[in-house]
Amino acid sequence: MIFCFIDESENKVTPDYYLILTGVLVSSQHLFELSFEIKDLKDELQIRNLKELRDTKRFKRKNKLDATKSLTERLEKHDVTVIGIVEFPKKLKRYDPEYRKKQLYYDAIWLLAERVTMYAKRRGEKWLFIADMLKYNEIKEKIRSEMRLTGEAFNVKMKDYLFETPFFVEDEFCNFVQVADLVALSLNHALRSYLKEKVCLADMDIEDLYKFSPYLSLYWSLFDRSPEQKVGGWGIKIWWYNE
User: Fold this and answer.
1) Share of the chain above pLDDT 90, in %
2) CATH of the domain at 236
3) How far is it, in rounded angstroms, from Cα 192 to Cα 216?
4) Hey, which of 77, 123, 201, 228 has its CA 20 to 30 A from 30?
5) Can you give the residue range of the structural domain that contains 237?
6) What is the pTM assigned to this prediction?
7) What is the pLDDT of residue 239?
8) How many structural domains compose the chain?
């Protein structure tokens, strides 16, 4: 079985708002051993939560890059795969922050679930949805009910591959949700850097995105790829949400 751990990051720095979701996919064969290895890394770094690596006062850039490299080596060793979704709001009925995030999160979850379902289908396995705790209870319940009953991924019934119901957990108790957070943050870092240098998003070459962040560059080998070894559309999907 495949465990998919999900967390989000959003851009509030540059004028272009977007929401990122990343799914960290771990096989049940590797889950427990990798979890212990991540715990050992946290002990080495003297942290309780991987999100503490965000603290720029405590961790300098080199320290963070070294920690990211060590984490990536552990993830690669256990065949972890990452799938990322980036959603830009093209047209919404309302643009207040709460409404915008709720709408984009709900849509991005479906896009991510579609791609994870197809990933699971290619491997002939079921997958389990585990995401960071949401404060939007109505969205959680909607996701839980709809995915199990009516969810489809490219004409494939999601319920045939989704194991049980989606779970929402507190990230402080889940190493892998913390990993998903760091990968989402690295993708956010790359996109912010890109938007500061470039003007037209439509011309973005996803295959070069890792060049805009040293953190994303370290995680880059983990992203899912097409048979032609392309990340775009497989490991990273960029979408313009239109209500």
Assistant:
1) 57
2) 3.30.420.10
3) 12
4) 228
5) 2-242
6) 0.92
7) 87
8) 1
